[in-house]
Amino acid sequence: MRLFICCELPAAIIQSLGETVDRLRETKADVSWVRPKSMHVTLKFLGEVSADRTAAITEAMRESVFGMVPFVCTVQEMGAFPRLQRPRVYWVGIDDPSGNLQTMAQRLEENLCRQGFAREERPFRPHLTLGRVRSIRGVENVLERIERENSCFGRFEVDELVLMQSQLDPGGAIYTAMHRQRIGD
To answer: Which end of the chain lies in a sparser environment, N or C, as judged by fewer CB atoms within 10 Å?
Structure first.
């Protein structure tokens, strides 16, 4: 199974992001735009995992949120990796003023490492992927649109972690929640 751990978004934010993606799509840039209903905040991508390891994953999730309380993050500020002038991925940032999302991601990384999962080499940078650049055609139009539309997309409460299965399909990945770990339980 192809697995990852994430936080889901409320419908209002998904709708707002969807409207923005629709406007970015109008630029005709050579970008593979993400379907808004597929957007989530990935805390840890696990890759291919055998079914017998899911108990270890759910235990790591439980340990990672132990003693925490739900907290609020804001979805705002569009950007690109590695930078707007040479984009490979367009994204929207997640502002975490409490620092709890970062703490939870670090705890999750440590707990999963103890369970034998590989450590992520890159630092955790919470974001939502909007699209992946296929070629430079039209990127200047996207930059112009981002500069005009860069705004806040809403706030959401982070109150659970979700272990998600991703099944690749020609029409896009299909996500299925396998386990939900409430924060504070």
So the answer is: C
